[in-house]
Amino acid sequence: MTATLVATWQFKQAGDGYQDAVAEELKLQAAVQEEARYLYADEAPLAFRVAAAAGRAEALGPLRNDGRLAASEFALAEHEAASLREQARPGSIIGSDRYLDAQKGYDVPRRFADQEKQDAADHRLRPDRTMAGGDRWALWGRVSLTVAAAALLAVLATASVLRPEAWRIPPPAAGGPRRLRGIDPIPQPATAPSDRRRGTQLHLLVVVLLFLLPLLQLTAASGEQRAQAEASRQALRLGAAIVASGQRAAFLTQAVTASHVADIHAAAREIAVLYQKDSPAVRHERAVAAAETRHASQLRVMAENMGRPPAVTDGVSAASVAALRARPEDWPDMRAEQNRHKAQADAAGARGLYLAAATALAVVAEMLAAAFLESGQLSRIGWPTGCATTSIGLTAWAMLA
User: Fold this and answer.
1) 3-state secondary structure (DSSP) of residue 283
2) How open is the CA angle 307-311-312, to the nearest 5 degrees?
3) What is the mean pLDDT of residues 237-249?
């Protein structure tokens, strides 16, 4: 009994651990999504625009004294970059040159890592470790159940071979209170009359079922809790991966498109003067077109660098790395993993239901066996036998299916 109560408490602790792991996963993945939205939807596009304007000003700077076109475009680009930087918050990505590389733009992954440090409370959560803690409690619960089952079987086996003197109910004293002597809490086949021995053995088997089936139900309930928690965690990870990687991919696509547009503009400027009569103005415009072509190539490098998937070496947490590096082709496998855990939860729930039905049949069998043995109606012992057989069959189906 003590081992059973301890196992119940241990499985309760395991269930609490599984629920805590889901709550931690929810907080962690919500933080990942919000940071991805903020960095790749709010800060990174503006940072790319500033880097593009600064790069354009740098490309046109050597030509600004050769003609009005370069001078005007240089002034516009330089003023745009300077104004956006002045208006930015000091702690933002463009608020300082901390993340700036003149050739590659801003280091968005490193900015992401620093942003995580500001929200360190959420990123210190370790749902995997919490889940493992629940697994340890569940393991100890199974150990306690094993001890309880072994002790129970040992007692019942002893009772079925030789009934100890201490377990025998003495006859009532003359004039004393009457006692029920025909029904034992633990049936004793070893001391039963020969004509009642088979029925008593059946009664003992039913008692064993009534003790063991609740223990199996505890194990099934714990397995269902774990599988449900893992399925929930996988769903949260999938949702965060879709949102976070989508934000990064959208930024990268927009930045690469901007580099293509810049290349198209440079080519159009070159075409516009292709058949013009040679003159200082035409040569100047061609030089501007060549500088813009080089700048377009630099923009492509900036776009790929700023939109690159972060790695753990950038200081980004493993949860954010997994979400931001996810690709659409990875999502079916993630859904399959979630569905696998959901199927395990459904199977554990069905197992618990079958075991509950087996327990109900065992209760009916125990009541019928006790009643028929007490009344001496041994010819009707087939009814509890059928209930017990069905209970055993359901138990075997639940554990093997």
Assistant:
1) helix
2) 150
3) 94
CA pair distance 300, 262, nearest whole angstrom: 10
Handedness of CA 42, 48, 54, 56 (dihedral sign): negative
pLDDT at 178 over 60: no
Please return the burial class of 90, using the count of CB atoms within 10 Å of its CB with bins 0-12, 13-18 and 19+. exposed
- Burial (0-12, 13-18, 19+ Cβ within 10 Å), 369: buried
Comparing C-alpha atoms, which of 277, 280, 260 is closest to residue 268? 260
pTM surpassing 0.85?
no
Give the phi and the psi of residue 89 in degrees, each rounded to 5.
-65, 145
- Whether residue 293 contacts residue 267, with contact meaning beta carbons closer than 8 Å, is answered with yes
CB 263 within 8 Å of CB 283: no
CB neighbours of residue 294 within 10 Å: 12
Residue with tokens 């805590």: 20
Closest CA to 358 of 206, 186, 224, 219: 206
> Phi and psi of 101, rounded to 5°?
-125, 120
Distances from the Cα of 307 to the Cα of 30, 47, 184, 253, 296, angstroms: 21, 11, 76, 9, 16
Residue 166 banded pLDDT, cuts 50, 70, 90 = low
Q: Are the CB atoms for 368 and 384 separated by under 8 Å?
A: yes
